[in-house]
Amino acid sequence: xxxxxxxxxxxxxxxxxxxxxxxxxxxxxxxxxxxxxxxxxxxxxxxxxxxxxxxxxxxxxxxxxxxxxxxxxxxxxxxxxxxxxxxxxxxxxxxxxxxxxxxxxxxxxxxxxxxxxxxxxxxxxxxxxxxxxxxxxxxxxxxxxxxxxxxxxxxxxxxxxxxxxxxxxxxxxxxxxxxxxxxxxxxxxxxxxxxxxxxxxxxxxxxxxxxxxxxxxxxxxxxxxxxxxxx
Length: 231
Fold this sequence. Notes:
With 231 residues, the protein is mainly α. The chain has helices at residues 5-18, 29-36, 40-53, 71-95, 98-116, 123-136, 141-157, 166-182, 185-200, 213-219; strands at residues 56-59, 63-66, 158-160, 203-205.
């Protein structure tokens, strides 16, 4: 069975975001194919996609390498997200389905419950699912895809400090859902803009060193597990 290129792409992207591959390091088709247990064809296609997304660059005499974004490029990503997240929320207020609302409300209930209990272990994952679902509710595949790429790149370039007020943060999530449910585009946009601005303040540039790379490589999952790959 041929492994789809998008599964290989997801696996390589996840490892880049996790810091398994250092910025500027070479990504040879042969080694990647061996690492993920696939042929070189899907690896080649995956590298082309990752280059279009900005995770990979092609250099003369070196081939494909992990990109080395500047601080300005990293800052631009946060600014782009601050502009696009509120737009997505406003669109969601106009285009959301009942299925979207059900998922969003469920995530808010879980997030608020765990924030009150002080159980912050999975609040970040819940927050990621919330914003991914909110983007999908916008009814715009282009906007959803762009926001997903931004989230991947921001996770690659930044560490995020735990929010000082998780209860307040999840109250904001609840306010966004209420506005979306009422079809109030402007309120959804306003609350999301404030929420995103506050979240941005917790981001710190990530400059991974060599010391912990060996552990990241050791614990990385090498084979491509198609069943668990996120699309």
